[in-house]
Design goal:
The radius of gyration is 15 Å and the shape is globular. It has five helices and two strands, in the order αβααβαα. The protein has a two-stranded parallel sheet. By secondary structure, it is mainly alpha-helical.
Amino acid sequence: EKGYRLVSNVIFKKILEMSRDLAKDNGAKFYFVYLPTYESLKSENQGKDRHQKSEILSIIKELNVNLIDIKDIVLKNEINYLNLFPCEVCHYSVEGYKKITNLIYDETLN
């Protein structure tokens, strides 16, 4: 699994570099939005999720990419994450995506 993750990280990094450069070449701002899972919002002790997030954020920082970390925003603003998901194993609900969209919009204004 480590070898696969290393290859995945190399590909992920290359995609981010190309996306960042394309945005810059076109005079646009480029943001990476970290969307947490239900499980990662539910518990700080999430092991695998925390490790994957730290790997992702390390690459984002290395490439100097703008980051919008929805988990940090949700926790900082004490948003009830249960309202973002219809169930524990589901994607975000319609209302959840709407809330996340508004949070992203607000962050890009700053």
